[in-house]
Design brief:
By secondary structure, the protein is mainly alpha-helical. It is built from eleven helices and five strands. A three-stranded mixed β-sheet has the order 2-1-5. Strands 3-4 form a two-stranded antiparallel ribbon. A hairpin with a 7-residue loop joins strand 3 and strand 4. It is globular, with a radius of gyration of 19 Å. It starts with a helix and ends in an 11-residue tail after the last helix.
Amino acid sequence: MKPSGILAVLLLVYTERSGFGMCHPKPACRYPPSQWCRSLEIAIECRVEKQCMEVNATRLNQAVPGVSVTLYYESLCPDCREFITQQLFPTWTMLQDIMAVTLVPYGNAKELRSANSPFACQHGEPECKGNMIEACILHLTEHSLAFHIIYCMESSADVLSAAQSCLRLYAPSVPWSRVDSCVKGDLGYQLMRANALMTRALNPAHTHVPWITFNGEYTEENEDKAMSSLFQLVCRLYKGVKPPACTGALVRLSRSFC
């Protein structure tokens, strides 16, 4: 049972307005509120199964394909970090029912013919390591968890130092040793090689990062709009019935008070 971003937001609004979490102790569980409705097991552990069933009953019809957003980026690029933390992740949190995000950490890196250092990155060796850590996390964890982890890293003061604690926060079942083995082993190299091929296959070729495509296509107009308000752009590009977040409509849940 995958939660939508807007439904997660609605759940939080519901808990605040209804008194849930204010008149009673907070749910004693290992997961942050954004993950409470990710599965029935988590909802039961966090004692919010009724609320999750309620909000998921309002899920949108998925017959219309969502907007596909692909971000080609670098882990230590300031502009990439700003786009992830201020545009991409907040928009996905509210609109994930109508959008799909693909993250490709590579950017302006170059492949080298060297066994010891197979890639050279724009912001040095730490960025190469950050790119590979995030590629491994994307491979080893479920997509929504991986996005939460990468957002956690990119919004931290030190991207690399935050990686282990962000993984422990959002994917406690995945030991850091698995990510470390991926980064230091052949798997990490293969993942980065795949990202290199995806980046080089761009048409038109990328000239900077962040480089953003929508439904597989790049236009300067859409990139400019995405940098200023990705939320409005995704709402406009979606061909189906607009969700309440796009229209500003209110979704009324059950009323209960303390």
